[in-house]
Amino acid sequence: MSEMNTDGPSRATRLAETLLKGLASRPPLEDTNEVRLVDNPTLKAIRERRSATQFTSDPVSDELIEAILEAGRWAPSGLNSQPWEFVVVRDPEVRAGMASILQQITFFWKGFATAPVMIVVAVDADTDPAHVVEDGAVAAQFLCLAARSLGLATSWAGVHGGGSRRRSAQHKLRRLLSLPKGHRVIAVIPIGSLWAGPRSDRRPLSEMTHRDRYDGSPASRLLHVGA
Description:
The protein is α+β, with helices and mostly antiparallel strands. It has one domain: 3-Layer(aba) Sandwich (NADH Oxidase), CATH 3.40.109.10. The protein has 7 helices and 7 strands; from the N terminus they run ααβαβααβαββαββ. The longest helix is centred in the middle third of the chain and has 18 residues. The relative contact order is 0.20.
């Protein structure tokens, strides 16, 4: 991925700021495509999770962060290798440095900087080289869902690419956070109270579900609601 010009706001940054202002004035969108067959707190958190683009300054307690991290600890991994390390960042200077680096990979880096806490999901690439990216991604999603279940908002900046190139976001974040050699950043997750976020729904289940094999034609609903 190419570096973004940091000499003044780029066109992409100005576009992101315009989007943020518009998002802040929009009410949440109700998903009209939901099929409410079964309901429980886990499914509710999954449906309600959205990627926030800006956060309030309200603090997030250590107790809540520990609960979120505990969820990440229980994520599945290949051969139960548990290759992840979670770096909790509260220091304003470190968070500002991270946000500056993230402008290389996301339009919403300024919004991320408003979050009072960031959790960096890193993995030991030598633990299970074939699966560490998937393992780290699953753990990151567990963190996001746990935060949503506790009434908090999150987003996700994927940082697994870039390798050891000195100008890559991957390399810069590893240096900033003093990660050991061989560790890779998978994602940066800002956490806080929602100030602005996307109005988004999902495609109907009937348009993405296929029976037995993919034949180009979506299957009908899995169950006949009300039958």
